[in-house]
Amino acid sequence: MKKLFIVFMIGIIFVITACSGNESKQEVLEKALQSPDQVESYFADFGIDIDIKSDIANDSSTMNGQVTLIEDPIAIHQLFSSKQEGTETSTEIYRVQDEAFVKQGEGAWTEQPVTSEMANFEPDYETVVSVLENVEELVEFDNSGDTYQISYSGFDQSIYDAFEGPFSVQLTGFRVDEDVTLELVIDIHQQDHYIENLDYTIFAESGNNELEMNISLEYDQVNEIEDIEIPEEVQTGI
Prior knowledge:
The protein is of the alpha+beta class. Helices cover 21% and strands 42% of the residues. It contains six helices and eleven strands. A hairpin with a 4-residue loop joins β7 and β8. The protein is flat, with a radius of gyration of 21 Å. The N and C termini lie far apart (62 Å). The N terminus is likely disordered.
């Protein structure tokens, strides 16, 4: 019986291994584009780092955020921080359905009206996934690791345009089609086909002007978050 059990377990492992990791690039991208229909909750960790060098001055800025989100009914906890020219700011937000509370820096919690125009989290998961549209012929595909990985290095206007909307990427002072190089790496979960990690870097150089912008985004606890509650001290403004 023990020998039969071991053989049975090996058979299961073989089936799981055989069924994952062998899909084509087209199949993976198509399923990834459909993944927002199955994603109901997640934790997202993201960051944007910008470094600029010029004859006039050098400058750098960063923005980081952590978001825990349930899609329906909407419940969200967000923490954002940014630093530019030595100035640091932070914002923390709780929203559960029709209740929302915001704290700026070390200030007090204040209740905010919830309107239909209020953004839950930008860019949301569906918007991020949309960057995969129409890139099949441009990206490299690797299915040899623990995730499906697509990557790109060089410049193509369609990839630049795909990120312009979701991440508000706009360059000024550079000829985009001549001065810009892009590097992109996206890891996709092999079983559920949701995006696990995204790393996108823009390099721009024109004369003595240089820019490097990196956008990183990681998703975790997908469909594992069951509840988000507004703490009592937030509701009482402590």
